[in-house]
Amino acid sequence: MSTAPSGPETHQVALIPGDGIGPEVTGAALQVLEAAGVSIRWEEVEAGAEVVQKHGSPVPDRALTAIRGSGVALKGPIGTPIGEGFRSANVTLRQSLDLYASVRPVKNIPGVPCRYQDVDLVVVRENTEGLYSGLEHRVAPGIVESLKIVTERASLRIAACAFELAEREGRPEVCTVHKANIMKLSDGLFLECARRVAREHPDIVHREIIIDNCAMQLVRDPSRFSVLLLENLYGDILSDLCAGLVGGLGVVPGANLGDDCAVFEAVHGSAPDIAGKRVANPTALILSSVMMLRHLGESAAADAIENAVHSVLADEKNHTADIGGTATLDGVTAAITERL
Ligand code: NAI
What pTM value is reported for the model? Predict the structure, then answer.
């Protein structure tokens, strides 16, 4: 599968359609990328809950090989059974490819209804360890233990990612979110690493905030935050909260970045409640593909798609149900491709 070549360079990108609404929203993103005239050779690979029976793993080796080969992937959401079954495919993918930084820009889209109109922050989440290390065991009947792993190496590199992002984007501050008052060793190490990196970036203000206070401050006045630096679990939870500040999961994109590979995906999951109905909002995945284009150096096409998305969403007749409208996935996608 490939989009129509137009530019001088053809990019090789792995494509994981995923589960639930994944194939619908990735299909929409592909149409939009094609309309923007970016030349991409897609290598489609399977991963997710639906391929476990076939391959014995939610993340088959072929998927990892394809992503390592191209260095870039666009990924739909993947479902993971709750409280049982196989290990999270997303955690496996992020750890196997060492995609240590989850970067999620959270910004108002003009016309998308929400409680705040001045949100412009980036969630930078450590993506490979913490409580998502997958180390759980039963100590005795009725007692289980889940290990939270925090390493100096992973904490330093995610802090560097946050401060470098702030510098690159002209953001004044990085706010490290922690619970080091209770988890003195694990969150204490994460915080200490952030302080060490902050000393190397004297032009960026380093603020520290305890996670419960941060959650409250975010819903009171999100404009007070610019870059949030968090360990894995806190980042997972607060990125959904932040998505809610600007209209919900249907509109917030994301990237999982490592030194060798980058996987672009929306913040949302496979949304089994609306899968197959073609009513999902494709915006989050389309904006994830905009992030992917910037990563590939295709900034003109990225700007064109972003402008088209903004102009389409400025009209409420193009709003899907998650943001209060009645438009369908195909209707929004067609409006964006026509605009391009
Ligand atoms: P979810 O994000 O799939 O859905 C939460 C709510 O948001 C649902 O009501 C859903 O309909 C709505 N929603 C999500 N995306 C939407 C979109 N694009 N347009 C309109 N509405 C949308 O979260 P949930 O239900 O907690 O998880 C479902 C499955 O997804 C689980 O198996 C979970 O493990 C997986 N998941 C996968 C992720 C990934 O692959 N990156 C991330 C989060 C969850």
Answer: 0.95
